[in-house]
Write a structure and sequence with these properties.
Length: 386
Amino acid sequence: MTNFDHLTQTLMQVFLDARVGLSLPVHRMLALLTACLLDGTPAHLTALAEALPDVETDTNVKAQRVRRFLSTPKISPQRVLPLFIVLLRPLLQQLPELILAMDRTTWKTRQRHVNILMVSVYFEGRAIPLFWVVWDRGGASSYTQWTTVLSPVMTELQKHAWCAHIPIIVVADREFASPRLAQWLKQTYCVESVLRLKRSAYLGDQDQSVQLAALLQHFPQASTRHYRQITVTKTSDFLVNVTITWGAQYDEPLVVIATQKGAKQAIDTYEKRFGIEPMFKDQKSNGFDIEGTKVTAPKRIETLLIMMALAHIFCTSEGARKEQAGEAKKKRRMGCLIRPVGLFLVGLKAFKQFFRRTARPRFIAFVRCLFSFMGLPLKLLKKVRY
């Protein structure tokens, strides 16, 4: 039995014990494709088919199996979200707050658009994918789509007692800067938000309103202003706090609306939104090369992202484990300790090395060590036939 088989069996057992309601064949294919990604296979349909271990089956037949799996309605981001939360618990429960970043990425392949709206959770400078919707047209997202991707995440997180005491804050860029969204989050889930504002917005109080663009014309660089309990846009009566800051090293001011108090707190929170940008890069050129796939159907992309998210969680967890164990050290630059490589890439490199260069006993020890770090009981792993 190969290292690939060992990891596949272990993943399958973990997925089964999570009780997310998937059938046995779906569990098996989910484990197989996740193991392929951890072995360094790009997220391309043909490459994944070729990487499947059934050597006696023609590649075209295996590719058709992968297509059917990606198209099946039996698996969806909604079904596997509880599994993501279970696997992420050891990382998330040590955080002082849960920062959820919402953003959109898009590309075009074979004359068709792939448009993904994703919610991720911030951890140690990077974001980890949690939930998404995919559509095959260009253009910006809508308020309905924002609530569609946020609702399941809020509902699932608030089910768990271990994170009941951890504040949840949603951060998002200018596309999502709507006081309606901030009001919905606050009133529906008691969740705070920090959203970057467009220059076309109007700020108002009881006496007057002014367009932000006009206000910024005379705003001095290297300064910060904070406006408490004002309205944004002429149609909203929901009161928010607005912070304008213009760092000396930046080309333009940053303007955010926040339901939480304090200018510094709002800016510090918003800056964690940028963790989703390297996450998208990890999904693309740094890691799984999702942009290079010829898959264009929204449902198939949606399912493909599930295996990528699982692989992302395992790689980030392994990177965090190595760092905590002193096996991956930060370097000092300009008087600060920084990571030369993100936790995801540290973990992905470790998986590739253990797959290809390690004897079976060492690989089994590696898998047990990682899954123990992730809080998965060893009794689950004893069910796996090594």
